[in-house]
Amino acid sequence: MTSPIDRFRPVASAHRTLQELAARFDLEVRGAGADRTGHVEIGSVASDDRTVGEGELFVALPGARAHGAAFAGAAVARGARAVLTDPAGAALLADAAVAVPVLVAADPRELLGPVAAWVYGEPAERLTTFGVTGTNGKTTTTYLVDHVLRALGWKTGLVGTVETRSGDRVLASRLTTPEAADLQAVLATMVEDEVRTLAMEVSSHALALHRVDGLVFDVVGFTNLSQDHLDFHGDLQSYFEAKATLFTQQHARRGVVVVDDAWGERMVGAAQVPVTTLRVGPAADAGTTGAATADWSVADVVPAPGGTAFTLRHRDGVQVRTTTSLPGHFNVANAALALTMVLEAGTDPRDLEAALDAAGGLTAAVPGRMEVVSEPPHAPRVVVDFAHNPDALALAIEALRPTTTGRLVVVFGATGDRDRGKRPTMGAVAVDGADVVVVTDDDPHGEDPAAVRAEVLPGAHAARDVAAAAPEPRHVVVSEVAPRARAIHDSILAAAPEDTVLVAGRGHEVWQEVAGVDLALDDRVEARAALAARAARSGPSAPAAPPSRHDRPQTVQQHDPKEPHA
Ligand SMILES: CC(=O)N[C@H]1[C@@H](OP(=O)(O)OP(=O)(O)OC[C@H]2O[C@@H](n3ccc(=O)[nH]c3=O)[C@H](O)[C@@H]2O)O[C@H](CO)[C@@H](O)[C@@H]1O[C@H](C)C(=O)N[C@@H](C)C(=O)N[C@H](CCC(=O)O)C(=O)O
Ligand SMILES: Nc1ncnc2c1ncn2[C@@H]1O[C@H](COP(=O)(O)OP(=O)(O)OP(=O)(O)O)[C@@H](O)[C@H]1O
Questions:
Q1: b/e map of 284-315 (b: 16 or more CB within 10 Å)?
Q2: Angle between helices 422-433 and 390-400 (to 10 degrees)
Q3: Which of 33, 405, 438, 518 has the most other CB atoms within 10 Å of its CB?
């Protein structure tokens, strides 16, 4: 039976028997056919019944919304030959009299990765693997690692928020870091596709939920830590601790840590694997602040044709000079981290510099990350970015300020049903950096969009009043406009050609979840429609404006990459 959810799955696999599986992982066997496990072969593993194919092991996990055992019957109907579950799941299956053997473990979530890796023949061992964690910069750094590896001539694989790629084959991602069974199937597919390297994002959710168990990365990287995801982790310390588990022998052989913030220093202290430090420093003093104490530092950051040039220098004198086309000082940090990770994997710095020279520098385009939709002189500069927490929003604004000759306009909202604490702070940081702040909706999910905006606005209003009363007053305009497409449209139409309009928070996303329904909404599409409307307004020779959807959002099927649901 074909899978209703697209995913990578290897064509061939080791075909282990249930008897071998039970012996290898010390599993109790119950249920129908428990005495014939030596004759039952499994070729692949799934933890969601909607992805099950013929001859699979279905791992039924207890979850926040359901117990996977509730879907075991459907999984067997789709071809599952056995079920692995916990004692509670086994009890449910005994009642349901499921017609296949049931393997029982105390915590099958912890076993899922190692079991899948074993079934697929430990594919990660045949790849050079890079894992990136941190609050901001995972996607960008992962793309940059991939870009560097390709420049070096490797056939590469990539796993992250935007897409999953095995060589030239691409699927849109549902989670930033896939569930363990799906991840191991991706790795096995990459081995079949003769991919040699993996660059992958590792979210804190993935670490807490054992999605990367069974995978030991050759090199892991840490970008930074700031407030996000506290709805899941509770507090920053727990969030940090989840990230820190990546820097243990269970998950990594060595690590690279950006030590620009205190969390980086703490990560070095917490790491249980050898760690190399990288200090990029703030834009003003890159390469000087604390550079002497870090293994690698960044120096000589200057504007260059097509981007920013910088030197990554080891304290023993070895260095690599290159350029990145991605705007913003934080992207120099992402680029430096990507280079350091590749160097830590054993690449010769001279080979790296030569490969980057031949490739024209770090020119990776990252969808929805500081993506420039239009440039002056005839239209305002419009930039779509994924910044959806206070730190990222502040840095995205800061990155655009030096090159904005007019007003800096920021259109953004906060996510519903997620970390409420960051809402007023986002309002405040937007006002601190911009001239015009338009508060709109992000993904409201199940929350009333107006109620989410009402928690962002007090932060914006308070910061606006402080700015107006300062010795050198700034008069920031704060408004509330919804729905989001209207906010984008109105802001672009109102902007002067010398202004910059930053549309922040949703980046590459193409669905907006409102009251449990996903609406088609792509900030880049809306921005282009508004730009075309501007062009049509300013002269008869201008191209006709495509219709904007801002008054009539289209209802579509469920799928939302940032806050996905299975
Ligand atoms: C907190 C969290 O991450 N939860 C994820 C987790 O949910 P859960 O364990 O509670 O599972 P559940 O929905 O109760 O279902 C129980 C079991 O039944 C299975 N099931 C469920 C329904 C069904 O029809 N058939 C079926 O087989 C499920 O696959 C699961 O194994 O497993 C589910 C199945 O894979 C995920 O959909 C769900 O993602 C939730 C919805 C989610 O949005 N996660 C986000 C927050 C997330 O993980 N984000 C990070 C990135 C964060 C960032 O840095 O921005 C990510 O790595 O993507
Ligand atoms: N090194 C960085 N430091 C701070 N902010 C950054 C950094 N890199 C990117 N950002 C900002 O964070 C946003 C998200 O970047 P990116 O998608 O690369 O990070 P991420 O860690 O994958 O995010 P998420 O976990 O939310 O998917 C960008 O759009 C940009 O505004």
A1: eebbebebeebbbbbbebeeeeebbbbbbbbe
A2: 10
A3: 438
In angstroms, what is the span from residue 193 Cα to ligand 1's centroid? 28
Ligand 2 near 206 CB (within 6 A)? no
What is the residue with the minimal CA distance to atom 11 of ligand 1? 63
Query: Residue 436, class by beta-carbon neighbours within 10 Å (0-12 exposed, 13-18 middle, 19+ buried)?
Result: buried
Residue nearest to atom 8 of ligand 2 (CA): 137
- The neighbour count for residue 536, using CB atoms within 10 Å, is 14
pLDDT in tens, the chain (566 residues): 333 347 888 887 767 899 999 999 999 998 777 788 888 899 999 999 999 999 999 999 999 999 999 999 999 999 999 999 999 999 999 877 788 999 999 999 999 999 999 999 999 999 999 999 999 999 999 999 999 999 999 999 999 999 999 999 999 898 999 999 999 999 999 999 999 999 999 999 999 999 999 999 999 999 999 877 677 767 889 889 999 999 999 999 999 999 998 999 999 999 999 999 999 986 544 444 444 589 999 999 998 887 899 999 999 999 999 999 888 889 999 999 999 999 999 999 999 999 999 999 998 889 999 999 998 888 899 999 999 999 999 999 999 998 899 999 999 999 988 888 889 999 999 999 999 999 999 998 989 999 999 999 999 999 999 999 999 999 999 999 999 999 999 999 999 999 999 999 999 999 888 888 888 999 999 999 999 999 988 765 444 334 344 433 333 323 333 443 32
Task: Determine how β-strand 252-258 pairs with β-strand 381-385.
Answer: unpaired
Provide the CA 120 distance to its chain's centre, in angstroms: 25
Whether 211 has a binding-site annotation, put simply, is yes
Instruction: Please give the order of strands across the beta sheet that includes 275-279.
Output: 169-172, 163-166, 156-159, 197-201, 128-133, 217-222, 252-258, 275-279, 296-304, 307-314, 319-324
Token pair 């031949």 in the structure block, residue: 358
The ligand with the least distance to the CA atom of 136 is: 2
Instruction: Tokens for 309, please give them.
Output: 């040039």
- Type of residue found at 434: A
Nearest to 9 by CA among 57, 49, 45: 45
- Residues 207 and 376: their CA atoms lie apart, in Å, by 43
Ligand nearest to the CA of 181: 1
